[in-house]
Design a protein that fits this description.
Structural class: mainly alpha
Largest sheet: 3 strands, parallel
Number of helices: 9
Order of helices and strands: HHHHHHEEEHEHEH
Helix content: 55-70%
Radius of gyration: 40 Å
Strand content: 5-15%
Shape: rod-shaped
């Protein structure tokens, strides 16, 4: 189970990394396209390297968001100082500000934004530098605001999932508690049935030994049958339940009676069938839901073995 979960996490991380790389490549491609379509000479090799490196650095923003933003801003600021491009050169930095703000590093996002805007203003021509810088300032503010919204939305989703998981866990615990109470009620009813209905005429008052004396040993009483044989007055009981606590509870309840003897315990239906054939009990307490073989199947097979004569009751002795 843990191996499957680890493989699933690794697969999800690989898919997420692939998507982040693709988005970073798209952003870098948009900046390169804008650089090549501008009038005049195209970007130099150094400009292409700066744009590519700065854009692809966004692919690792989940593992190192601040480092990714600082590296991207440095590369794109170098490109701005060297080539004095359009405002499209700020696209990778704007994307980095968004993801860093979403990660909770607002101070780093604000600091990098201010440094990039100042550098862009100083590198721009005096004619339209202020106008383009103000435009970029609005884009950076939008990136920060959307990052905060995304962060709050993700926190809301996590809280919703946590509450749903807690509600599901509470329902499961309540169901288990109700099942335990029901099993205890059934155990008490079975105890009453065994002690008061199976052999009421054979019960005798319990005699407690005197203080300091050794406990008496249980005597197995027998009675003579019409055929001349003898039958034990002790009811032999087989307990079949997959929960050890329930088996111990049944045994503790039944062991307190003189005319009831627990001959064996089984943890599943198949083991219960084997023990029933081996010990041939008078009564079998069988749980319904069990692994390997259900209680209904086990009971049907045991009844078939008794009715077909494959099993002979041990209580009859000739």
């Amino acid at each position: 189970m843990r191996g499957e979960q680890r493989e699933k996490r690794e697969l999800d991380a690989w898919r997420t990394g692939l998507v982040d790389t693709a988005l970073a490549a798209v952003i870098g491609g948009a900046v390169l396209l804008a650089a090549f379509t501008v009038s005049g000479p195209g970007p130099s090799t150094a400009d292409v390297v700066l744009i590519t490196a700065g854009s692809l650095a966004l692919a690792v923003h989940r593992r190192a968001p601040v480092v990714s933003l600082v590296f991207t801003a440095a590369c794109m600021l170098g490109y701005v100082v060297h080539a004095n491009p359009r405002t499209s050169a700020a696209f990778p930095v704007i994307a980095g500000v968004h993801v860093v703000t979403r990660a909770g590093h607002r101070a780093a996002a604000v600091g990098v934004s201010v440094v990039f805007l100042v550098g862009f203003l100083l590198a721009s021509p005096s004619g339209d530098g202020i106008e383009r810088t103000l435009l970029l300032h609005g884009w950076f503010v939008c990136a920060g605001v959307t990052g905060l919204i995304d962060k709050n939305w993700q926190a809301y989703l996590r809280q919703t999932e946590q509450r749903a998981a807690e509600a599901e866990r509470t329902r499961e615990e309540a169901a288990l508690r109700r099942a335990g109470e029901e099993r205890l009620r059934i155990a008490r009813e079975l105890h009453d049935s065994l002690t008061h209905s199976i052999s009421p005429a054979r019960r005798r008052p319990r005699r407690h030994p005197a203080r300091g004396s050794a406990p008496r040993r249980r005597l197995l009483r027998t009675r003579r049958t019409a055929a001349g044989g003898t039958v034990s007055d002790v009811n032999r009981v087989l307990i079949v339940d997959d929960q050890a606590l329930m088996r111990a509870g049944f045994r503790a309840l039944l062991a307190a009676e003189d005319d009831i003897e627990v001959v064996a315990e089984a943890a599943d239906g198949r083991q219960g069938l084997e023990l029933a054939r081996r010990h041939v009990p008078d009564v079998a307490l069988v749980d319904v839901q069990m692994p390997v073989m259900t209680g209904i199947e086990t009971t049907q097979l045991v009844v078939f073995a008794y009715e077909s004569g494959l099993v002979t009751p041990k209580g009859a002795q000739t």
